[in-house]
Write a structure and sequence with these properties.
Elements lengths: L2 H11 L3 E11 L2 E11 L1 E4 L7 E8 L9 E8 L4 E6 L3 E3 L7 E9 L4 E4 L4 E3 L4 E10 L4 E10 L11 E11 L2 E12 L1 H6 L9 E8 L3 H8 L7 E7 L2 E8 L2 H15 L11
């Protein structure tokens, strides 16, 4: 074995790998975890008493993500179940020595189920490389709120992300039909790209909120909000609603995002969001 091969073997052996499989089931007025599988550095916990809606908290015991790491999450809300999934803290993606980090997320909601995917922010460090895919399968009458927020550097500490990779691919199907698809790729000189007026005009924190089913009536409470700290735009078409957020820093984005989520969910936020 050459020195290069040995170095590659040691590098691979020290990469974080994690997997979660969670299936939630409804019965007798309660949504409960029916199947839980954990592997590697990922864990899932269920704080609070059991009730109609189950809250699941994902924990990455690796303490962050870096190049070569790989994480897989399969989350399913069974028939009539109500499931909210969040994360214990903002996920940090550190500088890579070359390889991409990979995250694969699969979300499923059965008949009459309600699924809220509400992780806290993903913080990208300078030189980080992250490729993520999110695939969602909804029954024809299932409901979904999905939120993803990205902060470029620890803005409160004056950090910036000059270079790196963020590749994100979403595909959402309802009743077997593709209803939403988007792909985002920030590669190379990220700060320069975000500085362009048509991209983020210098903003360092962005988020997307997807609501299914959604229409103009669902967006009316969001459009009525005042005193937001960043820019927020909403649109609805073909039974789905989307809100886009852009802010100068992570604190402003979090303020706006918690305001929108609380408005959409009748004031309810996951417990971890209050810390």
């Amino acid at each position: 074995m050459t020195v290069a091969q040995e170095s590659a073997r040691i590098f691979a052996a020290n990469r974080a790998v994690g997997r979660i499989e969670l299936a939630a089931q409804y019965g007798r007025g309660i949504t409960r975890p029916a199947r839980v599988h954990e592997a590697g550095s990922l864990r899932v916990r269920f704080p609070g008493a059991r009730k109609r809606e189950l809250e699941a908290v994902v924990i990455n015991t690796a303490g962050g993500i870096t190049g070569g790491d790989r994480f897989d999450l399969d989350i399913a809300a069974g028939e009539a179940a109500r499931l909210t999934v969040t994360s214990a803290a903002a996920e940090k993606v550190y500088r890579s020595l070359g390889p991409d980090a990979h995250i694969r997320i699969r979300l499923t909601a059965g008949a009459a189920a309600s699924l809220a995917w509400l992780p806290q922010e993903t913080i990208l460090f300078d030189g980080a490389r992250l490729a993520r895919t999110i695939d969602v399968e909804l029954a024809a009458d299932a409901r979904l709120i999905m939120v993803e927020a990205l902060v470029l550097g620890r803005t409160g500490m004056g950090e910036a992300v000059e270079h790196g990779l963020f590749a994100d691919r979403w595909r959402v199907r309802r009743g077997g039909a593709l209803i939403y698809a988007e792909s985002v790729r920030l590669d190379g000189a990220i700060a320069a790209k975000l500085g362009e007026p048509a991209v983020a005009n210098g903003g360092a924190a962005v988020a997307t909120v997807l609501v299914v089913p959604g229409d103009a009536d669902a967006l009316a409470p969001l459009r009525a909000l005042k005193r937001l700290r960043g820019e927020v735009a909403t649109s609805a078409w073909n039974g789905i609603a989307v809100a886009r957020l852009c802010a100068r820093d992570g604190a402003a984005l979090r303020y706006d995002l918690t305001t929108l989520i609380a408005t959409l969910r009748g004031g309810k936020l996951p417990h971890c969001w209050f810390h």
